[in-house]
């Protein structure tokens, strides 16, 4: 019988193996990044609120606060911004991620102590004359509660807001006692206050 002599491979150096695995890892990461880039828009529209907000946070000009609120200044405005004890006068439109509109108002007055937390926080970022787009995570809007059929539970709420004016609530009460202030008669926020938003 003839015998076949197997020629053993030379041992592969550890450094070469490490380099090989690092290269594979980088290739996989690059492929994953490409996949995310090509699917980010569909995820933004059809994904979970968390996926949408993670994608939106990377869009130009979008600022994310510590609470998770996101906003972008369309027109920056100048000067001071409202506090939680103020009443704001705004033009606004509220929509969902799919673009469906659930609320709208012109020269609408809102006591910030009585609106959903995200809307109130967004207003405190806006000087007079500014226009912002604001994205409320569900936890800063209505959360698991649905205030009506137009706003499903766990919805991201998107507001386009123009800040016309704001004054302290105490001053407004005094003015109303003396006959009121045109354009600021008082009123309720979009959908009514969130549970506990008024501090009770």
Automatic annotation (TrEMBL):
Lineage: Bacteria, Pseudomonadati, Pseudomonadota, Alphaproteobacteria, Sphingomonadales
Protein family membership: Belongs to the FKBP-type PPIase family.
Alphabetized UniProt keyword annotations: Isomerase, Rotamase
Taxonomy, superkingdom: Bacteria
Pfam families per UniProt: FKBP_C (PF00254), FKBP_N (PF01346)
Protein name: Peptidyl-prolyl cis-trans isomerase
Broad enzyme group: isomerase
Source organism of the structure: Sphingomonas jejuensis
Keyword Isomerase: yes
Enzymatic reactions: [protein]-peptidylproline (omega=180) = [protein]-peptidylproline (omega=0)
């Amino acid at each position: 019988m003839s015998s076949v002599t197997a020629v053993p491979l030379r041992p592969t150096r550890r450094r070469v193996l490490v380099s090989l695995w690092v290269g594979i890892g980088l290739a996989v990461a690059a492929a994953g990044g490409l996949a995310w880039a090509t699917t980010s828009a569909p995820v933004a529209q059809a994904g979970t609120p968390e996926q949408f907000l993670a994608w939106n946070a990377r869009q130009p000009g979008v600022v994310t606060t510590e609470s998770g609120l996101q906003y972008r200044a369309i027109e920056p405005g100048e000067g001071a911004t409202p506090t939680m004890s103020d009443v704001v006068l705004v033009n606004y439109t509220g929509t969902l991620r799919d673009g469906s509109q659930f609320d709208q108002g012109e020269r609408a007055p809102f006591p910030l102590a009585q609106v959903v937390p995200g809307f109130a926080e967004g207003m405190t970022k806006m000087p007079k004359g500014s226009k912002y787009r604001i994205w409320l995570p569900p936890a800063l809007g209505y959360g698991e509660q649905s205030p009506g059929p137009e706003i499903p539970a766990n919805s991201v709420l998107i507001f386009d807001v123009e800040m016309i004016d704001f004054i302290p609530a105490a001053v407004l009460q005094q003015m109303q006692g003396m006959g009121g202030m045109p354009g600021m008669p008082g009123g309720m926020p979009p959908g009514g206050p969130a549970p506990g938003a008024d501090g009770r």
